[in-house]
Amino acid sequence: MKLYSYFRSSAAYRVRIALNLKGLSFDLIPIHLTKDGGRHKSSAYRAVNPQMRVPALALSTGEVLVQSIAIIEYLDEVYPAPALLPSDPVERARVRSIAQLIACDIHPLNNLATLNYLKNELKHDQAAVDRWYASWIIAGFEAVEAMIGPGPYVFGNAVTLADLCLVPQVFNARRFKIPLEHFPKIVSADAACAQLPAFEKANPENQPDAE
Ligand SMILES: N[C@@H](CCC(=O)N[C@@H](CS)C(=O)NCC(=O)O)C(=O)O
Description:
211 residues; binds glutathione; alpha+beta
């Protein structure tokens, strides 16, 4: 398999964790999101993913999957161990609700394209963009903190899709210096995940394209 990735992309980070947890080897193809005006906008990459975003996962059959959650659920179906979704339907829905809260309600508002639009099209200054960024993280994390269990991971003793979404979002929050002291359960789940080699290996700082 080939993973089109960018070291700082939190959506690609989710997929890197899933591949590592499942012990799958893959070739990492870095797609720089800012050099040359964004290499994800090249015609070569557009042929891989018409949405021109990372991640994309090219399977050994040549088929290409996009959208991190769809990719992770595909991996979970084809390589079921360790399971990333609980078998109980209510628990599964709870795991997916945290994953979607992060992937659908926080991340798109803070994505590179959104931040660039605020700056370049709407002419907001960096301070206003930073306020925008922080406000969506904080609103989202307040909900996550209220919804998750005492740990060690987001939903108890097993790592789930929810952890795969939370850890990259915490990494981003720290990068943008968002105070996390009001989110002790989030910080503790993130710390528990950090102990696992699959998460450590997927960390942006440990990627071949890290800067
Ligand atoms: N919902 C998508 C989000 C993908 C996405 O937005 N990726 C970002 C990096 S985290 C990207 O490629 N951004 C390029 C841009 O904003 O122009 C997923 O989960 O895969």
